[in-house]
Design brief:
Layout (H helix, E strand, L loop, with lengths): L2 H6 L1 H9 L1 H22 L4 H28 L16 H4 L4 H26 L2 H16 L13 H22 L4 H24 L1 H4 L6 H5 L1 H6 L1 H17 L5 H23 L9 H5 L2 H26 L1
Pathway: Quinol/quinone metabolism; menaquinone biosynthesis
Keywords: Membrane, Menaquinone biosynthesis, Transferase, Transmembrane, Transmembrane helix
GO biological process, one term: vitamin K biosynthetic process
Length: about 325
């Protein structure tokens, strides 16, 4: 293979197997968790935040790329499974080749690993190193290996724990030097939002996954997989209320969070989602991105609001 020919179109081909949109499902909880930790201490460690953001984003891309590689090798993708989302063309739907995916996987492991190790060196936090190694292993074995755990009905819980909850908690802990119960409660919110994203994808792939892997909707049933969102949200909202009642966050930030839950969670997603009686071919394409928008809005706005309050305390 001509190396110059390979790299000429590599960035465009790589983009189609990375699922960059869902990569931010980790990056943004890291961002809001970092700013929450900084908000509790009043000091922002920018370098720690940047390194953690890059590492978290890269490890999520590792999981996405590994998943694309497995789907290609197992011949799980065809014209009936296409979502036609730009940037999600993949190995079957786009111009990328298997070697492109392998190169992306190794590149993201290297970049995320370097940033993670540098962060451990700066913080002297061996717990961070241990969880980082476990997280990387989880990202790879999600789809690859003799017994990838996406074949079993634990993917939603494991992804929620690592991608949303743990990433958020460790990012805040890095800012603070140690964790506390407020940070733990706050991390539950991104964790459950990530569960929403994974469960919606699994519900949309209900028929596609049948006979290939067993997901939670196959175990508890299609409708129950939609209805389980309600108790999950009640846990999320309870944590959010406790943070307000204990004056960890101000009332106006609590209300902004509630507005995001209502607008992005209820109006733009669950209001119609809860009425679906059975799976249909376009379901994944229509509903898959909606919990992702909820993740985007909550974490971005919370990070921004924490930053404003930190700057306000410092300069006003």
């Amino acid at each position: 293979m001509n190396i110059l020919t390979f790299f000429k179109g590599f960035p465009k081909r790589a983009y189609t197997v990375m699922e960059v949109r869902t990569g931010f499902a980790t990056g943004l909880p890291v961002l809001s968790g970092s700013f929450f930790g900084a908000y509790l201490t009043g000091e922002i460690h920018w370098l720690y935040m940047i390194l953690f953001f890059i590492a978290g984003f890269c490890f999520n891309i590792v999981a996405n790329t590994a998943n694309e590689m497995r789907a290609y090798l197992a011949k799980e993708e065809n014209e009936t499974t296409f979502t036609y989302h730009k940037g999600s063309e993949g190995l079957v739907r786009g111009d990328a080749k298997f070697f492109d995916a392998v190169f992306v996987l190794l590149l993201m492991i290297a970049l995320g690993g370097i940033c993670g190790l540098l962060l451990v060196f700066l913080t002297k936090d061996l717990l961070l190193l241990a969880w980082g190694l476990i997280g990387l292993l989880a990202a790879i074995t999600y789809s690859l290996g003799p017994k990838p755990y996406l074949l079993y009905p634990v993917g939603e819980v494991v992804s929620g724990f690592f991608v949303g909850g743990l990433a958020c908690y460790l990012a805040g802990r890095t800012q603070m030097g140690s964790g506390n119960w407020q940070l733990l409660l706050y991390s539950v919110v991104p964790m459950i939002l990530t569960v929403f994203l994974m469960s919606t994808n699994n519900v949309g792939d209900y028929e596609k996954d049948r006979g290939i892997r067993v997901t939670l909707p196959h175990v508890i049933g299609f409708r129950n997989a939609i209805l389980i969102v309600i108790p999950e949200f009640l846990i999320l909202f309870t944590c959010w209320v406790i943070l307000w009642v204990t004056q960890t966050i101000p009332w106006w930030q609590f209300l902004i969070g509630c507005l995001i839950f209502y607008r992005q969670g209820w109006q733009r997603w669950y209001k119609d989602y809860v009425k679906i009686p059975s799976v249909y071919p376009e379901m994944g394409r229509e509903y898959g991105p909606r919990p992702l928008l909820l993740i985007y809005h909550f974490n971005t706005w919370m990070a921004f609001l924490f930053f404003i309050q930190i700057m306000g305390r410092k300069y006003l």
